[in-house]
Amino acid sequence: MRRKITIALLALGTVVGYASGFASLRCRAEARRDALQRHVASLCVNAARDAERSDRADRAARAAPRSAAPAGPGAPQADTGEGR
Asked: Where does the record place the region Disordered (predicted)?
């Protein structure tokens, strides 16, 4: 009788141990997936911010030489409204 109880307890412990291990693996897998999603989202946000900054810098670089460059002879003059 004592032997049967010991075998039953060992078998129950084995089953509970495996169940606990698989539950732990599942929980960690969800945490890793969530961490990966947060990481990818932050990469996307940073890439969008960098693209926005480079677009602004490109627009500023393109706009600066036009306004600073004098018009050549025969070039149409922009109506800036000065002298009105």
From this structure: 49-84
